[in-house]
Amino acid sequence: MLTEQQKIDFVKAVAVWNRPSLEWADCVDENKGYDFAKLCEVENVAATRDTLADFLSGAARTAKRHEQQRTPAGVLHIFHEVQARKGARRGTAFVMDFVEARAAFFNVEV
Asked: pLDDT by residue (tens digit) across 50-77?
């Protein structure tokens, strides 16, 4: 569903959001000393057929805050303090639309 490049672009988008001082171009070269995949690793990216509208009507309803960040790969949607199911810990959900599929990652707050 998602290509390897789409997963890498999603991880970069999350990294740039997480560390605003990090530039997109710096994510390309791991030899510059950036551990840009710290928050989200490529193998943790989930592909989903849920539409962005599904996320906006579902996650946005339970999220305390929703923000968007434009990146060279597309718009990263960040849903803060989302509860995946009743009684579960809240966390941050990241979603990016790649037309045929969405990349998603859920980071549970400790």
From this structure: 888 888 888 777 788 899 999 888 999 9
Facing residues of 46 across strands? 104
Q: What span, in angstroms and rounded, lies between the C-alpha atoms of 27 and 36?
A: 6
Is residue 77 within 8 A of residue 84, CB to CB? The reply is no
DSSP sequence for the chain: ---HHHHHHHHHHHHHHH-TTS-HHHHH-GGGS--TTSS--GGGPEEE---HHHHHHHHHHH-SEEEEEEETTEEEEEEEEEESSTTSPEEEEEEEE-SS-EEEEEEE--
Q: Is the pLDDT of residue 33 over 90?
A: no
Q: Structural domain tally of the chain?
A: 1
Range(s) of the domain holding residue 74? 4-108
Token digits for 63?
A: 């999220």
> Could you tell me what percent of the chain has a pLDDT over 70?
85
